[in-house]
Amino acid sequence: MIAAPDRTPLPRSFFDRPVLEAAPALLGRLLVRVFSPKGRVVLRLTEVEAYAGEADPGSHAYRGRTARNAVMYGPPGHAYVYFTYGMWHCLNVVCGPEGFASGILLRAGEIVEGAELVRPRRPTARRDHELAKGPARLATALDVDRTLDGTDLCGAEGAPLRLLTGTPAPASLLRAGPRTGVSGEGAVHPWRYWIDGEQSVSPYRAHTPRRRPGTARGANRKGS
């Protein structure tokens, strides 16, 4: 008989450690989004990316602290939400020692509860495993925007976003590779982690410069 996932909250100490330890350990954990009084959605994490603060050219904190990225500097266990390309939000988890600004981008997951609340938000998804397949889709599916920036993911029952213990992915299924869409030095780091064989994992895409109207081709850095 397969044991049910552990629904106890992840403690803050889980996030208060180096990002390259915390990121793969998040796979298989449960992200809960509460839509009071409509109910809640539970997502099992299947893909994440690590960003190592000011030491990482792919990170939003690479050039230091700003009003936009202030939440990244801690304390750990909080949500960092950013808006990108004028269209999409992405959800990250702050981790590591306070002041270091490392974070984990939540790239994809499987909706294990509340899919009926998600489908109207993701009408282009052909199958349920596509509902949160990619970081922008995950945030859209869970109705995450900048109003949730700074939310304590270790909060009490009923908080809008929480991370629960779930069932950690077995080591035999953990995979690592380059981060999606990261350019320059950061492109070589194998800091994207996923569970092998999961249909909800997004396809890898190398960095492609985006052309904006009236400008030269520019960088396409995304990540936390």
The CATH homology group name: Methylpurine-DNA glycosylase (MPG)
* Annotation, overall tally of beta strands: 11
Structural class: mainly beta
The total tally of domains equals: 1
CATH topology call: 3-methyladenine DNA Glycosylase, Chain A
SSE order, one letter for each helix or strand: EHHEEEEEHHEEEEE
**CATH class categorisation:** Alpha Beta
What is the arithmetic mean of pLDDT? 90
Q: State the separation between the terminal residues, measured CA to CA.
A: 39 Å
- What oligomeric assembly is this protein in? single chain
Q: How would the global form be characterised?
A: globular
Write up this protein.
This protein has helices at residues 12-15, 19-25, 115-118, 135-141; strands at 6-9, 30-35, 39-51, 79-84, 88-95, 102-113, 161-166, 174-177, 192-195, 210-211, 217-218. Strands 1, 2, 3, 4, 5, 6, 7, 8 and 9 form a 9-stranded antiparallel sheet that branches. Helices cover 10% and strands 30% of the residues. The model is unreliable at 215-222 (pLDDT under 50).
Which terms summarize this structure?
two-stranded antiparallel ribbon, 224 residues, 4 helices, disordered C terminus
Describe the structure concisely.
The chain is mainly beta. The protein contains four helices and eleven strands, in the order E-H-H-E-E-E-E-E-H-H-E-E-E-E-E. It has helices spanning 12-15, 19-25, 115-118, 135-141, and strands at residues 6-9, 30-35, 39-51, 79-84, 88-95, 102-113, 161-166, 174-177, 192-195, 210-211, 217-218.
